[in-house]
UniProtKB/TrEMBL annotation:
The lineage of its organism: Eukaryota, Metazoa, Chordata, Craniata, Vertebrata. Keywords: Nucleus. The keyword Coiled coil does not apply. InterPro entries: Galactose-bd-like_sf. The gene is Nr2c2ap. SUPFAM superfamilies: Galactose-binding domain-like (SSF49785). This is Nuclear receptor 2C2-associated protein. Signal peptide: none annotated. Its main location: nucleus.
Amino acid sequence: CPRDGGTCPCRVSSVLNRDVKQFGKKHMFDASEETCWNSDQGTCQWVTLDFPRTVKVSQLHIQFQGGFSSRLCTLEGCRAGEELVKISDLYPEDINAMQISFAAFQVEETVLDKLKITFANSTDFFGRIVVYHLGVLGEKL
């Protein structure tokens, strides 16, 4: 969303020590290798994206910090005014590299206005999640 100059309202479950300047959600989209969103501790951290217009999603790109990833990511989505419904489960690897979930994310025809990614099984003992990059690829409708 934000890479094309537009805005895409994003919400996150938490931010480490509430330090949004250093660890806030905007850092998932700034294309910097130096910054990240860092959740606080707790189970089932999540990110929601409210797209400014309807989109057809084809891929999800995500880069975790090794040791602070999620073994299970659940994707839910909906059209405007509807309730979220489960789309699929993803099983990222716990490595410090771009996680491209195209093979597991078989929702090429999914048309959405809102997407929620729930990080259900953190590799960190305290449940923290660290995301350096988050990208949703598809087309605007």
